[in-house]
Structures are given as C-alpha cells and as structure tokens.
Amino acid sequence: MLQPIRLISEAAELAARRHNGMARKGRGNEPYINHLAEVANLLATATDGADAELVAAGWLHDTVEDTDTTREELATKFSERVAALVVEVTDDMSLPKLQRRQKQIEDAPHKSPGAKMIKIADKISNTCARIVPNPSGDAREDLAAYVIWAEKVVAGCRSVNPMLDARFDEAVKAAKSVFEGK
Ligand code: ZN
Q1: pTM of the entire predicted model
Q2: 48: which residues sit within 8 A by CB, 6+ positions away?
Q3: Is 65 an active-site residue?
Q4: Which CATH superfamily is domain 4-179 in?
C-alpha cells in the first residue's frame, strides 16, 4: 500500500479531477471538492489521524456513485479496503431517489464501522451546507426533509465514534433552529 501521506494526497488529487466542474447542493454553489474536503477532514479529526485509508475513502466516497470511477480502479490505485469502503457508501443509482433513501436507512446498521463513520461525516457536511442565511421556503423544506431522513440513517451508524455523533447532533440542532424557528 502507498505510504499514508501519499495515499491521502493521491486520493484528494483523483477526487478533485473526477469531480471537476461539479457543484454541491446548498450554500453558494460551492465546488463539489469542498464537500469531499469536509468529509475527509471530519474523518481525520474524529480519528486523530489514525486511519489513512479511512481519510482516503472520505476523499473518494462519491467517485463511484457520481463519476466514471470503478471499484477496480480504486483497489488498484489505493487499496482493497479503500475500494470496499467507497463501495459500501455508494448508492445504487438505478433506483429512484426515494427508494435509495429508504435503502440507506435499512442498510446503515449492517455497514462496517468505517463506512458508518463516512456516512455520518457525509450527513454532517450535507446538513451544514443546507443551512443558509435567510433561506427561501423551498430551501427550508429541503433542509427539513434532508435532516429528518439523515437522522434515520445516522441512527443506524452511531456509537462508532463519539465525536462524529456529537457533531451530527450539533448540525441537526442548528438545522432545526432554521426550520422549526427555534
Ligand atoms: Zn458525499
């Protein structure tokens, strides 16, 4: 396997290239790479830098779902575990959105500890990106729907890493103060 700093650096570089030109949902049309940087950094912080493959998988977690990257490519370039983690958090895009969301809720408790951590970090990042100043009615509704669903997915991912659990709870609290007006 690549030396840890190289593993993460190569993962960031590949993710940046593959998601080039994509924008994330939520505040100010940020480039997609900002989302990946957030997820990877949440994982690095939560584990205090102890798991390079997890951080690399954080950078790469949306490559199989959203770009033409394959499991085989990730296994060859990075490691079998990095590829397995990314595939574990990849939705079956042949299913309609509601079914994909339902499947995430059902599958979450059966994921590996690493995949559960990526899931929570993803939900923290996506929730925070949807909290914008002076949200429109649509933005408020989108935030509410996202958070209610994310809480159900995260319920099946808890107790692997207390810091991630706490960060998710803070994000939910901030979101609810927007859509419940508290
Ligand atoms: Zn993501």
Answers
A1: 0.96
A2: none
A3: yes
A4: Hypothetical protein af1432 (1.10.3210.10)
